[in-house]
Amino acid sequence: MDDKFSQAITEPHEGIFRIAVPVPLPLKYVYGYVIETPQGYLVVDLGMDTPEARAVWEHVSRTLGLRPGRVWAIAITHFHPDHVGLSGFAQALWDCPVLMLEEEVQTVYQIFDGPPLPMGEFFSRNGLPPADAELLERERAFTQAVVRLPQSGPIQGLQKGTRLGPLELLEQKGHTDHQLLLYWPERKLLFTGDQVLNRITPNISFWPDSDPDPLASYLDSLHTLQSLPITMGLPAHESLIANVSRRIDELAAHHQERADQVLESLSEPKTAYEVARGLFHRTLTPSQWRFALSESLAHLEYLRLRGLVAHTVSEQFTLYQRADR
């Protein structure tokens, strides 16, 4: 086997192949899955449309015998580029439908097939320096370059609460508004997408014209997942999760601690960017500041909607302060 592909395929559970797909991001890999089902192979998540990612999937196709007729569907957990970016290539490679939850399909085409959303003003109003806001606007060219949507047929919508072969479809909000998780009840396996990760905390962000309380949605999701019998979590990033219940407890505790830190930081009125500067101490790129700022906003809005924080909106900035001050 070619050395560069020697670690590309593992089999964490009988008939489930985990595919390490390189991505030009700090996390280095997104993990797709090839699942044997009675209908044939179901592929879950793909990576970005880069030459390196295409080469991995071509190798996987040769090794596992993936071809038209044997791959019956591709399921994408959510709209982020490292999950949906290669969907056009994969559809052409295997001649099969690409599937997502219906509402997430709408987001995909809004983001990647419509006019650019004006995000610069949103970031600037929340305190991001103008130079960094401008860099984020330019970053869209990179996003467009690594996402190629299907051409021979649109992405098809799925309904939550139904099944793909043996897998139940779960809509879990927070990381995105309509992320798809797959649960195999007979094997007690959960494909966690980006909703539950083993080491890092998934990004929970507040965006305009989206979920007004994404942190509450995420915590509700964790509570729902906690009720499922799960023997293994198969995430889209990092290592497998041996104890999903314990990891969920850790994630919920992290967000409670972070909310407490945000509230404590508001000794005076601050923009969300100023709050984020107090929470994230390491050096961040402009792209990473986008997530730091939007996650700080998710916590601020969570606190505001529960009456613990107030905000004032001026022509220039939105300022947050403790409601008891």
Task: Provide keyphrases for this structure.
Metallo-beta-lactamase, Chain A; 22% strand; seven-stranded mixed β-sheet; 14 strands; five-stranded mixed β-sheet; globular
**What is the radius of gyration?**
20 Å
Low-confidence stretches: none
Individual helix count: 11
The overall strand count is 14
Overall geometry? globular
CATH topology: Metallo-beta-lactamase, Chain A
The main pleated sheet reads as: 7 strands, mixed
Helix content: 25-40%
Helix and strand run? EEEEHEHHEHHHHEEEEEHEHHHEE
How would you explain this protein's 3D organization?
The chain is an alpha/beta fold and 325 residues long. The chain has a single domain (3-265), classed as Metallo-beta-lactamase, Chain A (4-Layer Sandwich). It contains eleven helices and 14 strands. Strands 1-2-3-4-5-6-7 form a seven-stranded mixed β-sheet. A five-stranded mixed β-sheet has the order 8-9-10-11-12. The protein has a two-stranded antiparallel sheet with strand order 13-14. A hairpin with a 2-residue loop joins strand 1 (9-13) and strand 2 (16-22). Helix 9 (244-265) packs across helix 11. The chain is globular and about 65 Å long. The mean pLDDT is 93.
